[in-house]
Amino acid sequence: QVQLVQSGAEVKKPGASVKVSCRASGYTFTAYYMHWVRQAPGQGLEWMGRINPNNGVTNFAQKFQGWVTMTRDTSISTAYMELSRLKSDDTAMYFCARGFSNWYSDLWGRGTLVTVSS
Amino acid sequence: QSALTQPPSASGSPGQSVTISCTGTSSDVGGYNYVSWYQQHPGKAPKLMISEVSKRPSGVPDRFSGSKSGNTASLTVSGLQAEDEADYYCSSYAGSNNLVFGTGTKVTVL
Fold first, then answer.
1. Which residues of chain B does A46 touch, with a Cβ-Cβ cutoff of 8 Å?
2. What span, in angstroms and rounded, lies between the C-alpha atoms of B107 and B110?
3. What is the spatial distance between Cα A110 and Cα A79, in angstroms, rounded to a whole number?
4. What is the mean pLDDT of residues A1-27?
5. Mean pLDDT for each consecutive 10-residue tract of chain B (110 residues)?
6. Which terminal Cβ of chain A has fewer Cβ within 10 Å, N or C?
7. Contact A44/B102, CB-based, under 8 Å?
8. Nearest CA of chain A to the CA of B46: how many Å?
9. How much is the pLDDT for A20?
10. CB under 8 Å to A109, separation ≥6 — which residues?
11. What is the separation of C-alpha B100 from the centre of its chain, rounded to a whole number of angstroms?
């Protein structure tokens, strides 16, 4: 079954880091990009960046450069997104999405809710 | 990178058509044919409806169509059905390996 399975919800304190995982199944993990998109409560979608699982090359939205890390483990077909120095407005649903070179995503994970609260 | 501009809301009666605009600049929408549209129901992940301006993925009803003119892309939903009520987002490649989403439009079926 072609799917992306994300890790469970997280609650973090301000200043902490969070690492979200996204396990791919049913397709060749290294053949597609993996994008990360977040959505704050009641807000729109925000592109964070992407990783090429084949070679680990990453691209980030300017806002997230130096602040987010994207990695992958090809042995277990899993992509990771780590966000550091968390603030309350980082509270959001974080989605991973399989991406094509023409900048669209046809397969999305269900999302991981990250709550930042003291 | 600024978000693409979409109208906050749109509505239509069952069977009617609704068109959603997505306005950017020559650096994103106008510069590339990499505009996509996503449908998102409450509490769900987005679903790809249109890629590359006007390509409809397998399984998406042909009631959904996309187009682009200059710096504005559009999604038209013909023959509105109750299940089309959702939020819709456009996205566009913005150069330098960047992607930008639209502000989102809530479609209501009256």
1. 101
2. 9
3. 14
4. 98
5. 94 97 97 98 98 97 97 98 98 96 97
6. N
7. yes
8. 7
9. 98
10. A3, A4, A5, A6, A22, A95, A96, A97, B45
11. 13
